[in-house]
Protein backbone atom coordinates (compact mmCIF):
# COMPACT_ATOMS: atom_id res chain seq x y z
CA UNK A 1 0.00 0.00 0.00
CA UNK A 2 1.39 3.40 -0.97
CA UNK A 3 1.77 6.22 1.49
CA UNK A 4 -1.14 8.02 -0.11
CA UNK A 5 -3.36 4.96 0.12
CA UNK A 6 -2.34 4.42 3.75
CA UNK A 7 -3.33 7.95 4.67
CA UNK A 8 -6.61 8.03 2.75
CA UNK A 9 -9.50 6.10 4.26
CA UNK A 10 -11.45 4.46 1.48
CA UNK A 11 -14.10 2.79 3.55
CA UNK A 12 -17.10 4.67 4.85
CA UNK A 13 -16.83 5.59 8.51
CA UNK A 14 -20.54 5.52 9.17
CA UNK A 15 -21.40 4.74 12.74
CA UNK A 16 -22.60 1.35 13.85
CA UNK A 17 -25.70 1.11 16.05
CA UNK A 18 -25.18 2.05 19.68
CA UNK A 19 -27.25 1.61 22.81
CA UNK A 20 -29.06 4.83 22.02
CA UNK A 21 -30.05 3.76 18.50
CA UNK A 22 -30.98 0.21 19.60
CA UNK A 23 -33.12 1.30 22.51
CA UNK A 24 -36.79 0.48 21.85
CA UNK A 25 -39.44 2.50 23.68
CA UNK A 26 -42.02 0.52 25.61
CA UNK A 27 -45.11 0.05 23.44
CA UNK A 28 -48.62 0.46 24.80
CA UNK A 29 -50.44 -2.74 23.91
CA UNK A 30 -53.76 -0.97 23.50
CA UNK A 31 -52.71 1.89 21.26
CA UNK A 32 -51.13 1.36 17.89
CA UNK A 33 -47.37 1.82 18.06
CA UNK A 34 -45.97 4.93 16.41
CA UNK A 35 -42.41 5.33 15.17
CA UNK A 36 -40.05 7.16 17.48
CA UNK A 37 -39.47 10.73 16.27
CA UNK A 38 -36.06 11.73 14.97
CA UNK A 39 -34.01 13.70 17.48
CA UNK A 40 -34.29 17.47 16.94
CA UNK A 41 -31.49 19.55 15.48
CA UNK A 42 -28.90 20.13 18.19
CA UNK A 43 -28.43 23.81 19.06
CA UNK A 44 -24.77 23.93 18.12
CA UNK A 45 -24.27 27.54 19.21
CA UNK A 46 -26.32 28.68 22.20
CA UNK A 47 -26.17 32.43 21.60
CA UNK A 48 -27.21 35.14 24.03
CA UNK A 49 -26.67 38.83 24.78
CA UNK A 50 -23.39 37.85 26.38
CA UNK A 51 -22.38 35.77 23.36
CA UNK A 52 -24.24 37.21 20.36
CA UNK A 53 -21.78 35.78 17.84
CA UNK A 54 -19.93 32.53 18.31
CA UNK A 55 -17.72 30.57 17.57
CA UNK A 56 -16.53 32.78 14.68
CA UNK A 57 -17.85 35.71 12.64
CA UNK A 58 -21.29 34.85 11.27
CA UNK A 59 -20.28 35.96 7.78
CA UNK A 60 -17.31 33.59 7.81
CA UNK A 61 -19.43 30.71 9.11
CA UNK A 62 -21.84 31.31 6.21
CA UNK A 63 -19.01 31.42 3.69
CA UNK A 64 -17.54 28.21 5.09
CA UNK A 65 -20.93 26.49 4.74
CA UNK A 66 -21.13 27.71 1.14
CA UNK A 67 -17.61 26.37 0.56
CA UNK A 68 -18.63 22.87 1.69
CA UNK A 69 -21.83 22.86 -0.35
CA UNK A 70 -19.93 24.02 -3.42
CA UNK A 71 -17.38 21.29 -2.79
CA UNK A 72 -20.18 18.71 -2.67
CA UNK A 73 -21.63 20.04 -5.93
CA UNK A 74 -18.28 20.00 -7.76
CA UNK A 75 -17.55 17.54 -10.58
CA UNK A 76 -16.98 13.97 -9.35
CA UNK A 77 -13.48 13.97 -10.80
CA UNK A 78 -12.42 16.83 -8.51
CA UNK A 79 -10.22 15.52 -5.71
CA UNK A 80 -10.62 16.76 -2.14
CA UNK A 81 -7.76 16.95 0.35
CA UNK A 82 -8.19 17.11 4.13
CA UNK A 83 -5.18 18.18 6.20
CA UNK A 84 -5.91 17.63 9.92
CA UNK A 85 -3.44 18.35 12.70
CA UNK A 86 -1.75 15.56 14.62
CA UNK A 87 -3.32 15.92 18.08
CA UNK A 88 -6.68 14.69 19.34
CA UNK A 89 -8.43 17.98 18.56
CA UNK A 90 -7.01 18.14 15.04
CA UNK A 91 -7.72 14.50 14.25
CA UNK A 92 -11.27 14.82 15.58
CA UNK A 93 -11.93 17.91 13.50
CA UNK A 94 -10.71 15.96 10.47
CA UNK A 95 -13.02 13.01 11.18
CA UNK A 96 -16.01 15.30 11.72
CA UNK A 97 -15.30 16.96 8.38
CA UNK A 98 -14.72 13.64 6.59
CA UNK A 99 -17.94 12.08 7.87
CA UNK A 100 -19.93 15.21 7.05
CA UNK A 101 -18.64 15.23 3.49
CA UNK A 102 -19.26 11.53 2.91
CA UNK A 103 -22.46 10.97 4.93
CA UNK A 104 -24.29 14.30 5.08
CA UNK A 105 -23.22 15.64 1.68
CA UNK A 106 -22.94 12.24 -0.04
CA UNK A 107 -19.47 12.78 -1.51
CA UNK A 108 -17.87 9.61 -2.81
CA UNK A 109 -15.14 8.65 -0.26
CA UNK A 110 -12.78 7.76 -3.12
CA UNK A 111 -12.55 11.48 -3.95
CA UNK A 112 -11.17 12.35 -0.52
CA UNK A 113 -7.52 12.06 0.48
CA UNK A 114 -5.92 12.68 3.87
CA UNK A 115 -2.55 14.39 4.22
CA UNK A 116 -0.75 14.24 7.57
CA UNK A 117 2.12 16.64 8.17
CA UNK A 118 5.59 15.31 8.77
CA UNK A 119 7.20 15.74 12.18
CA UNK A 120 7.80 19.36 13.16
CA UNK A 121 6.30 20.82 10.01
CA UNK A 122 3.34 23.04 9.10
CA UNK A 123 1.36 23.94 5.97
CA UNK A 124 3.46 27.04 5.33
CA UNK A 125 6.64 24.97 4.89
CA UNK A 126 7.71 24.69 1.27
CA UNK A 127 8.10 20.90 1.45
CA UNK A 128 4.54 20.54 2.76
CA UNK A 129 3.12 22.84 0.09
CA UNK A 130 4.83 20.68 -2.51
CA UNK A 131 3.44 17.50 -0.93
CA UNK A 132 -0.10 18.89 -0.85
CA UNK A 133 0.17 19.98 -4.48
CA UNK A 134 1.09 16.43 -5.54
CA UNK A 135 -2.42 15.19 -4.72
CA UNK A 136 -3.85 17.28 -7.55
CA UNK A 137 -6.81 18.26 -5.38
CA UNK A 138 -9.22 21.00 -6.42
CA UNK A 139 -10.50 21.48 -2.87
CA UNK A 140 -8.25 21.62 0.21
CA UNK A 141 -9.41 21.96 3.83
CA UNK A 142 -6.75 22.49 6.51
CA UNK A 143 -7.86 21.88 10.10
CA UNK A 144 -6.23 22.95 13.39
CA UNK A 145 -2.82 23.54 11.81
CA UNK A 146 -2.31 27.04 13.16
CA UNK A 147 -3.05 30.40 11.56
CA UNK A 148 -0.34 32.38 9.85
CA UNK A 149 0.09 34.65 6.89
CA UNK A 150 1.85 32.73 4.15
CA UNK A 151 2.05 32.15 0.42
CA UNK A 152 -0.80 30.14 -1.16
CA UNK A 153 -1.10 26.63 0.28
CA UNK A 154 -0.62 25.27 -3.25
CA UNK A 155 -0.14 26.84 -6.68
CA UNK A 156 -3.54 27.98 -7.92
CA UNK A 157 -4.89 28.83 -4.47
CA UNK A 158 -3.89 32.45 -4.96
CA UNK A 159 -6.92 32.90 -7.28
CA UNK A 160 -9.25 32.64 -4.29
CA UNK A 161 -11.90 30.10 -3.33
CA UNK A 162 -14.67 31.84 -5.29
CA UNK A 163 -12.60 32.15 -8.47
CA UNK A 164 -13.76 30.70 -11.79
CA UNK A 165 -10.19 30.58 -13.07
CA UNK A 166 -9.59 27.18 -14.71
CA UNK A 167 -6.49 26.60 -12.57
CA UNK A 168 -8.02 27.82 -9.29
CA UNK A 169 -7.63 25.61 -6.22
CA UNK A 170 -10.21 26.29 -3.49
CA UNK A 171 -8.67 26.30 -0.02
CA UNK A 172 -10.13 26.77 3.46
CA UNK A 173 -8.44 26.93 6.87
CA UNK A 174 -10.50 25.94 9.93
CA UNK A 175 -8.61 26.94 13.06
CA UNK A 176 -8.66 28.48 16.54
CA UNK A 177 -5.03 29.51 17.07
CA UNK A 178 -4.07 33.16 17.38
CA UNK A 179 -4.26 35.33 14.27
CA UNK A 180 -4.21 39.11 14.51
CA UNK A 181 -7.43 40.90 13.55
CA UNK A 182 -7.42 41.60 9.83
CA UNK A 183 -4.65 39.14 8.95
CA UNK A 184 -5.76 37.03 5.96
CA UNK A 185 -3.81 33.83 6.56
CA UNK A 186 -2.52 31.92 3.52
CA UNK A 187 -3.02 33.85 0.30
CA UNK A 188 -6.35 33.15 -1.39
CA UNK A 189 -7.81 30.93 1.33
CA UNK A 190 -11.10 31.19 3.16
CA UNK A 191 -10.01 31.69 6.77
CA UNK A 192 -12.44 30.48 9.44
CA UNK A 193 -10.81 31.32 12.76
CA UNK A 194 -12.35 31.25 16.24
CA UNK A 195 -9.59 32.92 18.24
CA UNK A 196 -11.36 36.27 18.77
CA UNK A 197 -14.67 34.87 20.02
CA UNK A 198 -14.54 33.90 23.69
CA UNK A 199 -14.79 31.27 25.00
CA UNK A 200 -12.53 30.19 22.14
CA UNK A 201 -13.83 27.01 20.53
CA UNK A 202 -11.50 24.11 19.87
CA UNK A 203 -10.99 23.14 16.24
CA UNK A 204 -13.25 20.10 16.60
CA UNK A 205 -15.98 22.19 18.24
CA UNK A 206 -15.70 24.84 15.51
CA UNK A 207 -15.95 22.08 12.91
CA UNK A 208 -18.99 20.58 14.62
CA UNK A 209 -20.80 23.95 14.69
CA UNK A 210 -20.00 24.38 11.00
CA UNK A 211 -20.92 20.86 9.91
CA UNK A 212 -23.83 19.79 12.13
CA UNK A 213 -26.43 21.98 10.29
CA UNK A 214 -25.44 20.30 7.01
CA UNK A 215 -26.99 17.03 8.21
CA UNK A 216 -30.65 16.87 7.14
CA UNK A 217 -33.51 16.41 9.65
CA UNK A 218 -33.73 12.74 8.70
CA UNK A 219 -29.99 12.33 9.44
CA UNK A 220 -30.01 13.69 12.98
CA UNK A 221 -29.68 10.32 14.69
CA UNK A 222 -26.87 9.41 12.31
CA UNK A 223 -25.13 12.71 13.08
CA UNK A 224 -25.55 12.12 16.79
CA UNK A 225 -23.83 8.74 16.65
CA UNK A 226 -21.25 9.72 14.02
CA UNK A 227 -19.81 13.08 15.02
CA UNK A 228 -21.06 14.21 18.45
CA UNK A 229 -18.78 11.88 20.44
CA UNK A 230 -15.89 12.86 18.16
CA UNK A 231 -16.45 16.53 19.01
CA UNK A 232 -16.42 15.66 22.73
CA UNK A 233 -13.11 13.80 22.36
CA UNK A 234 -11.49 16.67 20.47
CA UNK A 235 -12.76 19.37 22.81
CA UNK A 236 -11.65 17.48 25.90
CA UNK A 237 -8.32 16.82 24.18
CA UNK A 238 -7.62 20.57 24.25
CA UNK A 239 -9.58 21.71 27.31
CA UNK A 240 -9.41 18.63 29.59
CA UNK A 241 -12.14 16.18 30.54
CA UNK A 242 -13.49 18.73 33.02
CA UNK A 243 -14.48 21.24 30.36
CA UNK A 244 -17.69 23.16 31.11
CA UNK A 245 -20.39 22.72 28.49
CA UNK A 246 -22.08 26.00 29.37
CA UNK A 247 -23.45 28.30 26.63
CA UNK A 248 -22.40 29.23 24.03
CA UNK A 249 -20.99 25.68 23.77
CA UNK A 250 -23.49 23.10 22.54
CA UNK A 251 -25.00 20.89 25.22
CA UNK A 252 -22.97 17.72 24.82
CA UNK A 253 -23.27 16.70 28.46
CA UNK A 254 -25.45 13.70 27.46
CA UNK A 255 -22.53 12.39 25.38
CA UNK A 256 -20.17 12.85 28.33
CA UNK A 257 -22.51 10.97 30.67
CA UNK A 258 -23.03 8.26 28.09
CA UNK A 259 -19.33 7.46 27.70
CA UNK A 260 -17.97 8.75 31.09
CA UNK A 261 -15.05 11.11 31.61
CA UNK A 262 -12.74 8.23 32.51
CA UNK A 263 -13.25 6.40 29.23
CA UNK A 264 -13.14 9.59 27.21
CA UNK A 265 -9.88 10.59 28.90
CA UNK A 266 -8.37 7.17 28.23
CA UNK A 267 -9.31 7.34 24.55
CA UNK A 268 -7.80 10.84 24.25
CA UNK A 269 -4.54 9.64 25.82
CA UNK A 270 -4.33 6.84 23.26
CA UNK A 271 -5.00 9.17 20.33
CA UNK A 272 -2.38 11.67 21.51
CA UNK A 273 0.37 9.14 22.26
CA UNK A 274 1.62 8.15 18.76
CA UNK A 275 2.46 11.71 17.69
CA UNK A 276 4.61 12.12 20.81
CA UNK A 277 6.87 9.16 19.97
CA UNK A 278 10.06 9.37 17.87
CA UNK A 279 8.23 7.39 15.15
CA UNK A 280 5.56 10.13 14.92
CA UNK A 281 3.01 7.44 14.12
CA UNK A 282 0.06 9.78 13.54
CA UNK A 283 -1.46 7.54 10.87
CA UNK A 284 -2.20 4.91 13.53
CA UNK A 285 -4.16 7.42 15.63
CA UNK A 286 -6.02 8.66 12.55
CA UNK A 287 -6.89 5.12 11.47
CA UNK A 288 -8.14 4.19 14.94
CA UNK A 289 -10.33 7.28 15.21
CA UNK A 290 -11.66 7.31 11.65
CA UNK A 291 -12.82 3.68 11.88
CA UNK A 292 -14.28 4.04 15.38
CA UNK A 293 -17.99 4.06 16.15
CA UNK A 294 -17.62 5.21 19.76
CA UNK A 295 -14.89 5.95 22.32
CA UNK A 296 -15.19 2.35 23.50
CA UNK A 297 -14.17 0.96 20.12
CA UNK A 298 -10.94 2.98 20.37
CA UNK A 299 -10.12 1.45 23.75
CA UNK A 300 -11.05 -2.17 22.98
CA UNK A 301 -8.44 -4.28 21.11
CA UNK A 302 -11.31 -6.50 19.93
CA UNK A 303 -12.72 -3.61 17.89
CA UNK A 304 -9.56 -1.61 17.22
CA UNK A 305 -6.84 -3.38 15.29
CA UNK A 306 -4.48 -0.50 16.11
CA UNK A 307 -4.99 -0.72 19.88
CA UNK A 308 -1.73 -2.54 20.63
CA UNK A 309 0.34 0.20 19.00
CA UNK A 310 -1.65 2.91 20.74
CA UNK A 311 -1.19 1.35 24.19
CA UNK A 312 2.51 0.72 23.55
CA UNK A 313 3.02 4.34 22.51
CA UNK A 314 1.13 5.61 25.55
CA UNK A 315 3.29 3.61 27.97
CA UNK A 316 6.54 4.66 26.29
CA UNK A 317 5.54 8.33 26.40
CA UNK A 318 4.59 8.00 30.06
CA UNK A 319 8.01 6.65 31.01
CA UNK A 320 9.83 9.34 29.04
CA UNK A 321 7.69 12.08 30.57
CA UNK A 322 8.55 10.85 34.04
CA UNK A 323 12.27 10.76 33.20
CA UNK A 324 12.35 14.32 31.88
CA UNK A 325 10.05 15.80 34.53
CA UNK A 326 12.88 15.87 37.09
CA UNK A 327 14.81 18.56 35.20
CA UNK A 328 15.22 21.58 37.53
CA UNK A 329 14.02 24.94 36.16
CA UNK A 330 15.98 28.16 35.76
CA UNK A 331 14.38 31.60 35.95
CA UNK A 332 14.60 34.70 33.80
CA UNK A 333 16.19 37.72 35.42
CA UNK A 334 12.82 39.44 35.87
CA UNK A 335 11.32 36.23 37.31
CA UNK A 336 8.46 36.05 34.78
CA UNK A 337 9.63 32.85 33.05
CA UNK A 338 10.75 29.50 34.44
CA UNK A 339 12.57 27.42 31.82
CA UNK A 340 13.25 23.68 31.83
CA UNK A 341 15.62 22.45 29.10
CA UNK A 342 15.44 18.80 28.14
CA UNK A 343 16.83 16.54 25.44
CA UNK A 344 14.32 13.93 24.30
CA UNK A 345 13.28 12.35 21.01
CA UNK A 346 9.73 12.31 22.39
CA UNK A 347 7.30 15.22 22.28
CA UNK A 348 7.00 15.44 26.05
CA UNK A 349 7.80 19.13 26.47
CA UNK A 350 4.12 20.24 26.54
CA UNK A 351 3.24 17.73 29.25
CA UNK A 352 6.23 18.71 31.37
CA UNK A 353 5.37 22.40 31.14
CA UNK A 354 1.84 21.55 32.31
CA UNK A 355 3.16 19.46 35.23
CA UNK A 356 5.33 22.28 36.55
CA UNK A 357 2.70 25.05 36.35
CA UNK A 358 1.39 24.33 39.83
CA UNK A 359 4.73 23.57 41.50
CA UNK A 360 6.53 26.90 41.27
CA UNK A 361 5.58 29.76 43.60
CA UNK A 362 7.88 32.67 42.69
CA UNK A 363 6.25 36.05 43.22
CA UNK A 364 6.79 37.34 39.65
CA UNK A 365 6.35 34.05 37.80
CA UNK A 366 3.90 34.09 34.89
CA UNK A 367 5.05 31.49 32.34
CA UNK A 368 6.48 27.98 32.58
CA UNK A 369 8.44 26.97 29.48
CA UNK A 370 9.87 23.57 28.56
CA UNK A 371 12.37 23.55 25.69
CA UNK A 372 13.41 20.32 23.99
CA UNK A 373 16.52 20.24 21.78
CA UNK A 374 16.26 16.51 21.03
CA UNK A 375 12.90 16.29 19.26
CA UNK A 376 14.04 17.65 15.88
CA UNK A 377 17.73 17.71 14.90
CA UNK A 378 19.07 21.25 14.86
CA UNK A 379 15.85 22.69 16.26
CA UNK A 380 14.48 23.56 19.69
CA UNK A 381 10.78 22.92 20.27
CA UNK A 382 9.35 24.81 23.22
CA UNK A 383 5.96 24.84 24.90
CA UNK A 384 4.67 27.39 27.40
CA UNK A 385 1.82 27.37 29.91
CA UNK A 386 0.58 29.92 32.44
CA UNK A 387 1.85 29.39 36.00
CA UNK A 388 -0.91 28.68 38.51
CA UNK A 389 0.56 31.24 40.90
CA UNK A 390 -0.09 33.99 38.32
CA UNK A 391 -3.70 32.87 37.96
CA UNK A 392 -4.13 32.96 41.75
CA UNK A 393 -2.86 36.54 41.72
CA UNK A 394 -5.66 37.34 39.28
CA UNK A 395 -3.33 38.16 36.40
CA UNK A 396 -4.58 37.70 32.83
CA UNK A 397 -1.34 36.46 31.29
CA UNK A 398 -0.97 36.48 27.51
CA UNK A 399 1.96 34.16 26.84
CA UNK A 400 2.46 35.38 23.28
CA UNK A 401 2.77 38.98 24.53
CA UNK A 402 5.22 37.91 27.27
CA UNK A 403 7.44 36.08 24.77
CA UNK A 404 7.30 38.96 22.30
CA UNK A 405 8.32 41.39 25.05
CA UNK A 406 11.66 39.59 25.23
CA UNK A 407 12.03 39.14 21.46
CA UNK A 408 11.27 42.82 20.80
CA UNK A 409 14.46 43.77 22.64
CA UNK A 410 16.30 42.88 19.42
CA UNK A 411 14.05 43.75 16.43
CA UNK A 412 16.64 42.73 13.85
CA UNK A 413 17.01 39.28 15.39
CA UNK A 414 13.23 38.89 15.64
CA UNK A 415 12.95 39.65 11.93
CA UNK A 416 15.58 37.00 11.21
CA UNK A 417 13.87 34.33 13.32
CA UNK A 418 10.50 35.04 11.70
CA UNK A 419 12.09 34.56 8.29
CA UNK A 420 13.73 31.35 9.51
CA UNK A 421 10.47 29.83 10.80
CA UNK A 422 8.33 31.15 7.95
CA UNK A 423 5.79 33.08 10.01
CA UNK A 424 5.16 34.31 13.53
CA UNK A 425 7.91 33.64 16.04
CA UNK A 426 5.39 32.35 18.59
CA UNK A 427 2.26 30.38 17.78
CA UNK A 428 -0.70 28.86 19.56
CA UNK A 429 -2.98 30.59 22.04
CA UNK A 430 -2.48 33.37 24.60
CA UNK A 431 -2.84 30.72 27.35
CA UNK A 432 -0.83 27.93 25.66
CA UNK A 433 1.87 28.95 23.25
CA UNK A 434 5.26 27.91 21.95
CA UNK A 435 7.40 27.68 18.87
CA UNK A 436 10.14 25.90 16.94
CA UNK A 437 13.44 27.75 16.57
CA UNK A 438 16.72 26.75 14.97
CA UNK A 439 19.09 26.10 17.87
CA UNK A 440 21.21 29.21 17.31
CA UNK A 441 18.10 31.39 17.42
CA UNK A 442 16.82 29.77 20.60
CA UNK A 443 20.20 30.33 22.22
CA UNK A 444 19.84 34.03 21.36
CA UNK A 445 16.30 34.05 22.79
CA UNK A 446 17.70 32.40 25.94
CA UNK A 447 20.10 35.35 26.28
CA UNK A 448 17.33 37.90 25.71
CA UNK A 449 15.26 36.33 28.50
CA UNK A 450 18.40 36.39 30.68
CA UNK A 451 17.78 32.89 31.94
CA UNK A 452 19.84 32.11 35.03
CA UNK A 453 20.89 35.73 35.49
CA UNK A 454 20.23 36.76 39.11
CA UNK A 455 17.99 39.78 39.65
CA UNK A 456 19.60 43.09 40.53
CA UNK A 457 20.20 43.47 44.25
CA UNK A 458 20.13 39.76 45.04
CA UNK A 459 22.83 37.99 47.05
CA UNK A 460 23.58 35.92 43.99
CA UNK A 461 24.46 39.14 42.19
CA UNK A 462 27.27 39.68 44.67
CA UNK A 463 25.61 41.90 47.26
CA UNK A 464 26.15 39.78 50.35
CA UNK A 465 26.28 40.74 53.99
CA UNK A 466 23.88 40.67 56.84
CA UNK A 467 21.64 43.38 55.40
CA UNK A 468 21.27 41.53 52.12
CA UNK A 469 20.52 38.29 53.93
CA UNK A 470 17.94 39.97 56.13
CA UNK A 471 15.98 41.40 53.18
CA UNK A 472 16.37 38.38 50.98
CA UNK A 473 13.15 36.82 49.64
CA UNK A 474 12.61 33.12 50.40
CA UNK A 475 14.39 31.00 47.86
CA UNK A 476 12.36 29.07 45.28
CA UNK A 477 12.26 25.43 46.35
CA UNK A 478 11.78 22.74 43.74
CA UNK A 479 10.83 19.78 45.89
CA UNK A 480 9.92 16.92 43.57
CA UNK A 481 8.38 14.88 46.37
CA UNK A 482 6.17 17.80 47.36
CA UNK A 483 5.11 18.05 43.72
CA UNK A 484 3.86 14.51 43.79
CA UNK A 485 6.64 13.04 41.64
CA UNK A 486 8.75 10.07 42.61
CA UNK A 487 12.52 10.13 42.51
CA UNK A 488 12.59 7.44 39.84
CA UNK A 489 10.44 6.84 36.77
CA UNK A 490 7.25 4.90 37.28
CA UNK A 491 6.13 2.25 34.85
CA UNK A 492 2.85 3.97 34.16
CA UNK A 493 1.54 7.54 34.46
CA UNK A 494 -1.81 9.02 33.38
CA UNK A 495 -1.50 11.02 30.19
CA UNK A 496 -2.03 14.74 29.95
CA UNK A 497 -5.01 15.53 27.74
CA UNK A 498 -4.16 19.12 26.96
CA UNK A 499 -2.89 19.65 23.47
CA UNK A 500 0.42 21.12 22.57
UniProtKB/TrEMBL annotation:
It comes from the Eukaryota. InterPro entries: DDH_dom, DHH_sf, SSDNA_exonuclease_RecJ. Residues 1-61, 453-500 are annotated as: Disordered. Residues 79-218 form the DDH domain. It holds the Pfam family DHH. Residues 7-18 have a biased composition (Low complexity). Residues 485-500 have a biased composition (Polar residues). PANTHER family: SINGLE-STRANDED-DNA-SPECIFIC EXONUCLEASE RECJ (PTHR30255:SF2). This is DDH domain-containing protein. The lineage of its organism: Eukaryota, Fungi, Dikarya, Basidiomycota, Ustilaginomycotina.
Amino acid sequence: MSKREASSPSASTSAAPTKRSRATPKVNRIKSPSPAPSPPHIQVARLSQEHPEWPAPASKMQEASEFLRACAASPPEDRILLVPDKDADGLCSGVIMYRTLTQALAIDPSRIHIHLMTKGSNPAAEAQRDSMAEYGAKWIIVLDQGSRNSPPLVPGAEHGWRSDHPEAIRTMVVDHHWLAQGDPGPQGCLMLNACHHKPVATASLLTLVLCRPLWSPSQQEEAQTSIDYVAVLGTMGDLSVNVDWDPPFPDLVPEVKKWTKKRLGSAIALLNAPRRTPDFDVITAWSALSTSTSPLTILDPATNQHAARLYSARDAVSLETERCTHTPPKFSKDGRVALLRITSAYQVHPSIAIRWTGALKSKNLQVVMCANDGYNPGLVNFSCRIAQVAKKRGEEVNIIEVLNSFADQDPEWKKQVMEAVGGNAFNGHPQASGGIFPKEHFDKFYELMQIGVPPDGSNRAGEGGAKGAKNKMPAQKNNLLAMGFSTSPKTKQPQETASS
